[in-house]
Amino acid sequence: MTDTDDWVSLFSGGKDSSWALYRAMEADLNVSRLLTVHPEGDSYMYHTPATHLAALAAESVGVELVEVSPDDFGADDVDDAGAQGDAELEPMEAALRELAADDGLDLAGVTAGAVESEFQTSRIQGMCDRLDIDLFAPLWQKDPVALAEAMLDAGFEIVIVQVAAYGLDESWLGRTYDREALAELRELNAEYGVHPLGEGGEFETFVVDGPHMDRRIALDYETVWEGDRGHIDVTDARLE
Predict the structure, then answer these.
(1) Any idea what the Cα angle at residue 177 is, between residues 147 and 230, rounded to 5°?
(2) Is the Cβ–Cβ distance between 52 and 69 less than 8 Å?
(3) Among 38, 80, 107, 197, fewest CB within 10 Å belongs to which?
(4) Radius of gyration of the chain (CA)
(5) What is the mean pLDDT of residues 90-99?
(6) What pTM did the predictor assign?
(7) Tens digit of each residue's pLDDT (9 = 90 or more) over 158-195
(8) Whole-number Å distance between alpha carbons of 140 and 46
């Protein structure tokens, strides 16, 4: 592996994958592509909300985006969680093989924003082993509060785009994930077990600005609340 070898950042636009990308750039890894998977409905492997905004984020970051659409999935009829996770990984692995074969990338590795999910990380590591490439996972098994504070210290502006946990009501939708929100999440962790980074799917995020981005992303949205969970419906998104 050399300094000019190509890295692909597995990227949703959420805080964790964005932090992995940022840390890779800080480490002078040559990130030449972002790869976004757009699952249809719930997913065992991927961040699902607002992935359509990844193109704007990629434009702001200044790295070419490769997108995998729901049409590329073949896991609709799989009942077993493990088998579905494996099936969901297939189109991403195929996209990486295609990049190496057709785009002439000297593929060194991928970045991933996994924090605690052995289910996801073991499958991504297995994929990397099959492709004979490295995995850069700077969040893996790190303290979640320390990670959140590092993101905020670096200047990440993070918006909560989906919530699905007891203790998180409609007021959290569209809220900025800042130090005040982190303090409240730590209280909710003690009371209800809400993960400070939403690692268990308690909430999802989108990064609208950060030190790795040239332009901030402005969002207009409506909130959709479904009794005990909800999400924002983005009506307009643009680079400022």
Answers:
(1) 120
(2) no
(3) 80
(4) 17
(5) 91
(6) 0.91
(7) 999 999 999 999 999 999 999 999 999 999 999 999 99
(8) 16
